[in-house]
Fold:
Amino acid sequence: MSGVLVTGGTGKTGKTLVQLLRNADVRARAASRNPAAADPEAIRFDWNDPTTYGPALDGMDRVFLLPPVESVDPLPLVEPFLREAQRAGIRRLAMLGSAIVLPNSPSAVEMAAQVQAQPGGVVLRASGFMQNFLRPHPLAEHIHRLGEIRTAAGDGELGWVDARDIAASAAALLADLGVDARSDYLITGPHGMSYPQAAQIITAQTGRQIRLQRITEEEQAAAYRASGMPTEFADALAAVERGIKEGREDQVSTAVLELTGRPPRAFAEFVSEHAYEWTQ
Structure:
């Protein structure tokens, strides 16, 4: 038996990846804490319950690895899974990492190195998700309710990428083990974009005036905490905006084109597809 275990199989990237693989006649097992009863290939998977690792890996030879979200130190949970994957004979393991390393995240670099040391280990370092502009993300909630983008990132730019392009890139690596792969890919959109530019694009595409509200890093952290994020993660996420403001996250690559054969979606295209989100 063979197939791809997709952890986070009901999330922004995982759900699309499962569909892309199945459309290509590749067996894809959607793993999540609350698997869909209607999907015979869905299975329960919980990072906090190591007894779910073995059954999820059983019969699979490839893995899409989504580390625990909203954690500044996921390695202690990921390490036992990597050992289990090696024992299970996994031949390719693609992890969705981040192009942006969270402050006070001591294990991010080590986790990437451990994944790359696995047979067929690949790290996809994705830039900021365009889907953050869609609810229920706090950024999107403010746009929807108040017509404003609140940011501490100033005019700094980020290579925002559509989660569907991340999924397509992962599918290109996981659908066929014969595909040559590097151990590291920076996954971005076609160009850098600042929050002021995002506000202008949404305004132009929807006809709704979107304002820019410049706030401090501390105010952003408080807003994230108020939305329900764990305190340590909220503070780290807000601190990322300092790096964006200072230009440290302004990176763009051609990896999506290289892996999928087509360029990544631009933000204007993304907004055009989802205009209803900000005009309802």
Observations:
- Residues 61 and 90 are 4 Å apart (CA to CA).
- The chain has a mean pLDDT of 96.
- DSSP finds twelve helices and eleven strands in the chain.
